[in-house]
Amino acid sequence: MEFIKGLFINLRLKDIVDIFIVAMAFYKLFKLIRETRAEQLTKGIIALFVFTKVSDWLQLYTVHWILDKTMTVGILALIIVFQPELRRALEYIGRSNFFTKSFIEIKDESLSQLVEEIVEAVASLSRQKIGALIVIERTTGLSEVIETGTRIDGKVSSDLLINIFIPNTPLHDGAVIVKEDIIKAAGCFLPLTENTSLSKDLGTRHRAALGISEKSDSLSIIVSEETGAISIAENGSLARYLDTKTLRQILMDMYKPKDQKSTFIAKWRRKDGQREK
């Protein structure tokens, strides 16, 4: 008790700040590795560290020597094994507001028209049960993804979007990339998510939408070919079974200037958490 009391007496403001920064760093790290291969690997590393300390305490010299050398060499192995997760962490830091430019701000008249064109196209595709995947670029550039498809560079319109996804056409089986109010490319290939805990009824479009949302701050709109259900993917999470009114609100909120953004998406997700997978 005296030791604990001494800790609180000698606690300084900079110590509290130090603890807070470390706690936030561990929290962010946990969010990055959650439901990925890194989560299981991290558990293995912790177990190995515990066994090393226990072998030292029990004076199991040979076992301790092997485990200690394994931990030493393991630092280099970690860099190789965790390469995808490290890249993801660096991309996450690079996407922070301190390093990125502001997302495009569109005037109210053009904004309303742009959102209506997208919503009208998605609603039509949903009614006809035509599969679609629309990725809206934000602050993270998607030039590498755009290069995998066919360049269009046409203004966003519902007719153009619908025609792209009509079955048996050259560009229907891929993603459309939208930047600001321009359709940059169609028929693009996206990376699939590494999340292994997804529902089995999710197809390639949903997994691709989640994959690109894990690697960028883009927002993806998915229309299911089987059910016509509308979903969105953002920041590695999926919200399913949206109606057009909800989609319109999300898009309007996304394109608004930063100081006018509401927390509508977060509120909707908390209210309908069962829809997220």
Automatic annotation (TrEMBL):
Alphabetized Gene3D superfamilies for the sequence: DNA integrity scanning protein, DisA, N-terminal domain
Nucleotidyltransferase keyword on record: yes
GO MF: adenylate cyclase activity; ATP binding; diadenylate cyclase activity
InterPro entries: C-di-AMP_synthase (IPR014046), CdaA (IPR034701), CdaA_N (IPR045585), DisA (IPR050338), DNA_integrity_DisA_N_sf (IPR036888), DNA_integrity_scan_DisA_N (IPR003390)
Pfam families: CdaA_N, DAC
Keywords from the named record: ATP-binding, Cell membrane, Membrane, Nucleotide-binding, Nucleotidyltransferase, Transferase, Transmembrane, Transmembrane helix
EC annotation from Swiss-Prot or TrEMBL: 2.7.7.85
Domain DAC: 83-244
SUPFAM superfamilies: YojJ-like
GO biological process: cAMP biosynthetic process
Reactions that this protein is recorded to catalyse: 2 ATP = 3',3'-c-di-AMP + 2 diphosphate
Annotated NCBIfam families: diadenylate cyclase CdaA
Assembly mode: Probably a homodimer.
Family: Belongs to the adenylate cyclase family. DacA/CdaA subfamily.
Function: Catalyzes the condensation of 2 ATP molecules into cyclic di-AMP (c-di-AMP), a second messenger used to regulate differing processes in different bacteria.
Protein name: Diadenylate cyclase
